[in-house]
Amino acid sequence: MDGRTKCRGDGGVRPERQRRRGCCGRAGRPRSRPGHRHCSRCRTDPAHRVGCAACGRHAGAYRLPRALNRSRRPRLGVRLLIAVVVGLAVLVLDQGPLHNWLQRQEAQSLDWRFRVHGPVPPPADVVLVVIDEAMIDAAGGWPVSRSVWAELIRRLTTVEARTIVVDALFEPRSQPGDADLVAAMRAHGRVFLAVAVAPMGDGRLQLMAPAAPLAHAAAGLGHTVLGLGVDGRLGHLPPGLDVEHDTLPALALAAARAHGQDPGWPQDNTVLLRPYGPSGTIFTVTASDLVADAVVPSLAGALVVVAADAVAVGERFRTPFDASLSGGEALATAIANGLEARTLQPLKAALPLTLFVAAFGASLLMGRWPAPVSLALLALLTAGLLAAAQALFVLHDLWLPLAAPLLALALAAVAVEASRLVLVQRAERVLAIERQNLQRFFAPPVAARIAAMGEVGELDRQVEATVMFVDLVGFSTYSERVEPAVAMATLRRILAQVEAAIFAEGGTLVTFLGDGCLACFGVPEPAADAPARAMAAARRISAAPDGELAISIGLHHGPLVMGNGGGARQFQFTVIGDTVNVTSRIEALSRPLDATIVASSAVVDRVRDQAPALLEGFVEAPPSSLRGRTGHIDLYVLPKQGSQGPGGS
């Protein structure tokens, strides 16, 4: 012997150390896939049975194909197609109908990046000197006289400020104090003045410079135009403006160059500013303290911006950190950016790549695993995209677009999930059809159990149930007198009523038997009220026929075995046991007892406890013996209409 299980081919199995539960031994393991022969007798047949045709091992192990076993996930090609379509659609929308909306969302994402990173320290040599309310009131209101400006410049010269930037627009006409201011500016030698520009009718810009003596005394002139983003926040600075056939530099650029740092900003493009924090982040000194010789930190070598900061004076800007940043501090921020040669660089060229990465990632992650897992992976992908954008922002001052990629990610995820739901609904429709088909051959409770099981052999078990036999009395004679089609139509009509009554009470119609049927209550699932349900169904059925046809019903309660009573290939749900045999013989007694329903005491006693009203009209029959059995059985009958019942005359 080789230690394997041998197939004798005669229906028996001789086990001799079964390896891995093998059935008949050539390979020592059960069948697992079609077409793979372990020996000449083992196979997987078209009926989905796995086992050996000769020895019968694994008999009854049927594997029913179910719609739930079909793929409910979109194919890889479908996901990739969804990603491509979504990516292209978002690119088109970004350049068309959704452009403004996406730009606003992008600006919000930039604000989020600023807030997450938090304030950063500005260059220490940039100082803001503000002309506050107290000094304006002392000078008689705004604008303050040229002499006040001269005094401030002289004071800054005394403290050795290296570069002075005056953020104030002086009128072109001469005013008292001009000579004093010119002298103070020349004494310092590095004072820069702001100039205004105004649009002309032909679209060109006109320069509105201060009085000639002031312009000549200044080390340089520059504009203070600061652009706003789509969300109204402080956004960008044009390094140069074409004014009267010349290029007027930004005051921030001119001051940074004079202070020894050329940021290299292109003149023909805008520069995105990077705020440092809320108001007060740039070191600030009040002009009142400076003029009054109050103790102030050393300003030696500093680049000082002098600007007004009072109610109704100067501009205010919104930033990610502040809703009302003064114009002077905004200019100081631009100068500080120039000194650090640090500006925000938008990665517009990376938009298509980022967008398609998000779309493909979402398409590949969604629909492949259960919804919670897919959503968790999608959240990780989103977090990774946000983390990458924040890292580029913090480490390299790069602005990676997020709004359009996140939109593509969401749309791709929704599209894949929608396609998965379509497949699920299709599979459920197929499953519903298969269940309907099962219910055409099996009772609904049995069909539901079969659909929920992997192998119908799981149905085999012993239960306590109530058995019903139904027979159509006189149908054979009736069918001889009428056309076959008429007889068949009558049979279908009456059996349909019988079927409806059984199903209405939760019974299982095991099989039709010619002009009758076999039904059970408490099968396949046990039910304590099975006798009462069976009696209720019998009362309904007794009213089904009409004319010369009559119904006879037998009821009995007891143990039985249910399961597959078919062969190796064809499944047949059935019930067997002494209870079934007794019920059949009880139904046969309905003729001599002249009754419609004949029920054993095992049924009646239980119905009396559960629903006594169902026993109305029943009478006890004389002790009766059953064909082929010894002894007597206690029976109760419902006499036929107009009959006296057992023993009646």
Portion of residues within helices: 25-40%
Show unreliable segments: 1-70
How would the global form be characterised? rod-shaped
Nearest-angstrom radius of gyration?
A: 48 Å
Offer a few descriptive terms.
single chain; 4 domains; eight-stranded mixed β-sheet; seven-stranded mixed β-sheet; 20% strand; rod-shaped
Any overview of this molecule?
This protein has 649 residues and is an alpha/beta fold. The protein has four domains: 59 residues, no CATH class; 114 residues, no CATH class; 216 residues, no CATH class; 186 residues, 2-Layer Sandwich (Alpha-Beta Plaits), CATH 3.30.70.1230. It is built from 18 helices and 28 strands. The strands form eight sheets. Strands 21, 22, 23, 24, 25, 26, 27 and 28 form an eight-stranded mixed β-sheet that branches. A hairpin with a 7-residue loop joins strand 17 and strand 18. The radius of gyration is 48 Å and the shape is rod-shaped. The N terminus is likely disordered.
Short description:
This protein is an alpha/beta fold and 649 residues long.
